[in-house]
Write a structure and sequence with these properties.
By secondary structure, this protein is an alpha+beta fold. It has 13 helices and 20 strands. Helix 8 crosses helix 11. It is elongated.
């Protein structure tokens, strides 16, 4: 899919999520007795508008999102211009005439609608059949391959796990393939060690492992021990690589035995000028290939080949089963998103690499759409939850900031002064402007890199 198509699909998806968010405010206001003056899809000049029950509905020229204008939203500005300390002139149905609890409901309804939307689209996500990788539960310890995975602390290594061990269970959860390990780690909260059972040389053993935390995720420091059987060789491969064929298994490189795909990548990344590769053909014969590794125009070594991976076809769940699965997945996404925001504010995650703006999000959504409906639905659910939770943060200019002021007024039993509201909104304007500039710069760096 080309970049323009990716952007258009992504922008349409973001517009839908923002519209759903504003629809939440619309219904929240209606339930709270706050008058809705305008509900608009998009921004700018109206392409079409109509009135029903006193509400103006608009479809605007720029279809990115929309807005819900509530009665009384101008009261704050009018009071400030009149130099009044308190906002005293309210008409029935005005936002600031409503009890703080009703305002809290109205402001919360937008984020809650995003979460509900994510829950609803998770249902077809679980109902759709899909093809999944079926990688072996035999592991390699990533610290054994520093050129491939980096030389960082490794939880598996420290606990006594070794490359070649086959994981049987983690905390009593049966492990049949490597993807089961990933599922367990997604649910891991970091509050305790994990009890890992495994097979080594025909003997069952167990270890207690303390996962590492890196970039907001918990890791064991293991990868699947995949066999180095070739599935594809790119056409630009040089010299003898042209004779490497699908189904060949690499058994040694430069005289050293090769057991896993990580061994192959390690030899390539060692920047050796020439490689001698011994391969076993599908008919059982052994051949030796000697060649210079392919280098990109930037001088980086590239293997120019892919390795075979087993796949399995998994049938989708029934509607009855998909609903509780969707609830569990939505709760998992909420916990994960909350933890990511926490790590972001505490400095455990780098804001530059973690925060993405509308351009990058749109592009990624569009690219994911090309990978299939199921992947697309999952990403949309994640983005919708992120949008909802981000808006609940108690920051000026966000729904969470308005909720915070409403809670303060409820506790105090009287309204805040106009000057406090205006100062709070001014801070929000600068914070929001700085955040917009930051994410746009981050997006630009992403695309140019």
């Amino acid at each position: 899919m080309n970049m323009v198509a990716s952007f258009l699909i992504g922008l349409a998806s973001i517009a839908l999520m923002i519209t759903i968010h504003e629809a939440g405010h619309f219904f929240g206001a209606r339930v709270s007795g706050i008058t809705v003056e305008t509900f608009a899809i998009g921004w700018g000049k109206a392409l079409k508008s109509w009135k029903k029950n006193g509400i103006e509905y608009r479809i605007n020229v720029f279809p990115l999102g929309g807005y819900c204008k509530l009665k009384g939203a101008q009261d704050l500005i009018d009071s400030h211009e009149r130099n009044e300390r308190q906002m005293t002139r309210f008409s029935e149905g005005s936002l600031f005439a409503a009890h703080p609890a009703r305002r809290i409901l109205t402001f919360s309804a937008g984020p809650l609608m995003n979460i509900l939307f994510a829950l609803l689209i998770c249902i077809p996500f679980f109902m759709l059949p899909y093809t999944a990788y079926d990688d072996p539960a035999t592991i390699i310890v990533t610290s054994d391959y520093p050129l491939v995975y980096g030389s960082q602390e490794n939880a598996a290594k420290e606990s006594g796990l070794r490359s070649g061990d086959t994981i049987i269970s983690i905390d009593g959860i049966e492990i049949q393939r490597f993807q089961d390990i990933s599922s367990v780690m997604r649910e891991y909260s970091g509050k305790r060690d994990l009890f890992v059972s495994f097979m080594r040389n025909g003997e069952r053993m167990s270890r207690s492992v303390t996962p590492m935390q890196r970039d907001g995720r918990y890791l064991l420091g293991v990868a699947s021990a995949m066999q180095p059987t070739v599935s594809r060789v790119q056409e630009v491969s040089p010299e003898a690589m042209a004779s490497l064929a699908e189904g060949d298994t690499i058994v040694s490189m430069n005289g050293e035995p090769v057991s896993y795909t990580a061994d192959v990548y390690a030899h390539y990344l060692s920047q050796e000028a020439r490689l001698v590769m011994k391969v076993r053909r599908e008919n059982g014969s052994l051949d030796t290939l000697s060649f210079s590794p392919y280098r990109t125009p930037e001088g980086h070594v590239s293997p120019q080949l892919s390795f075979a991976r087993n796949t399995i076809r998994i049938q989708g769940s029934s509607l009855v089963s998909a609903i509780p699965q969707a609830i569990d997945e939505t709760m998992r996404m909420i916990r994960e998103t909350g933890r990511l925001f926490s790590d972001l504010f505490t400095g455990k995650m780098d804001a530059g690499s973690s925060l993405a703006g509308p351009l990058r999000i749109s592009y990624v959504i569009g690219e994911t759409f090309a990978n299939g409906l199921r992947s697309f639905l999952q990403l949309i659910a994640m983005v919708s939850i992120s949008l909802g939770i981000a808006n609940l943060l108690p920051l000026p200019a966000l729904d969470g900031g308005s909720i915070l002021l409403s809670i303060i007024e409820w506790v105090r039993g009287r309204r805040l002064s106009v000057s406090i509201y205006m100062k709070y909104q001014s801070v929000g304007f600068f914070v929001l402007s700085a955040l917009i500039l930051f994410v746009l710069f981050s997006d630009a760096r992403f695309f140019f890199s």
